[in-house]
Amino acid sequence: MDTIKPCPPIADTFAKRYMWWTNLTPSWRAAFQQVLSIHGSSPSDEELCRIWQAPALRFAGPRAMYPNMNFELTDCSGLAGLTNLDILVVINHRVESIAELSTLTDLKGLFVNNNALTSLAGIESMSQLEQLYAHINKLQSLTPVRKLTRLRELYVSFNALNSLEGLTSSHTKQLKRLVCLPNDELPDREVIRVEQRLGIRCQRG
């Protein structure tokens, strides 16, 4: 059985946790209330600890196959600093940036598909990341994944990619599933380059 991690230093007292809650945007307070079944405007300290100690959180918007929210988020501000997370799911929303997730350096799985992301900036420090699902967005570059050499699964189909720069020979051993097709702007020569030079098969989603 996994040991529950303590709250990180930025939330290691009730006063800090409560201040964090009051500083959340109304959308993010509502998101946590819906996802974690928190009743009332002021959660208990036990409920706040549940957020900060959670190893996994899932926020699925109303368009998701199995939604647990009735509205769409537009940012990731409420997740900044939740460093105990191993798995994070923020799908079927209108999120345009994940830069606010840059402190989540222990993430192993990040699922941000079906959003409005134009960039993956913010993931560069997630050196433990093994799964990245970012299909159905507006991504133009994979450069931020350059140092994420533990990636086993990368889903980036249905974006605006015109290059697969960012993938290197350092990814070849671990990356077993690269789903990057279709991408209407991605030239065939780029697919061939990755398959022949890197030995990574470009799969269709």
Provide keyphrases for this structure.
single chain; 7 strands; seven-stranded parallel beta sheet; 4 helices; elongated; 205 residues; alpha/beta; Leucine-rich repeat, LRR (right-handed beta-alpha superhelix)
Produce a short descriptive summary.
With 205 residues, the protein is an alpha/beta fold. The protein has one domain: Alpha-Beta Horseshoe (Leucine-rich repeat, LRR (right-handed beta-alpha superhelix)), CATH 3.80.10.
Descriptive report:
- By secondary structure, this protein is of the alpha/beta class.
- The protein has a single domain, classed as Leucine-rich repeat, LRR (right-handed beta-alpha superhelix) (Alpha-Beta Horseshoe).
- It contains four helices and seven strands, in the order αααββββββαβ.
- Helix 1 packs across helix 3.
- The chain is elongated, with a radius of gyration of 18 Å.
What does the secondary structure layout of this molecule look like, with pairings?
Blueprint: H1 14-23, H2 26-35, H3 45-53, E1 56-60, E2 87-91, E3 109-111, E4 131-133, E5 153-155, E6 177-181, H4 188-198, E7 202-204
Parallel strand pairs: 1-2, 2-3, 3-4, 4-5, 5-6, 6-7
Helix pairs in contact: 1-3
Organism: Arsenicibacter rosenii
Protein name: Leucine-rich repeat domain-containing protein
Keywords: Leucine-rich repeat, Repeat
Quickly count the helices: 4
| SSE order, one letter for each helix or strand | HHHEEEEEEHE
Give the N-terminus to C-terminus distance in angstroms.
35 Å
Strand order of the largest sheet: 1-2-3-4-5-6-7
Instruction: Give the total of domains.
Output: 1
Assign an overall shape: elongated
The helix fraction, in percent, is: 10-25%
Question: What is the CATH level 1 assignment?
Answer: Alpha Beta
Number of strands: 7
CATH topology assignment: Leucine-rich repeat, LRR (right-handed beta-alpha superhelix)
Largest sheet: 7 strands, parallel
Computed structural class: alpha/beta
Q: Evaluate the radius of gyration.
A: 18 Å
Q: Identify the CATH architecture.
A: Alpha-Beta Horseshoe
Beta content comes to: 5-15%
Organism: Arsenicibacter rosenii
Protein name: Leucine-rich repeat domain-containing protein
Keywords: Leucine-rich repeat, Repeat
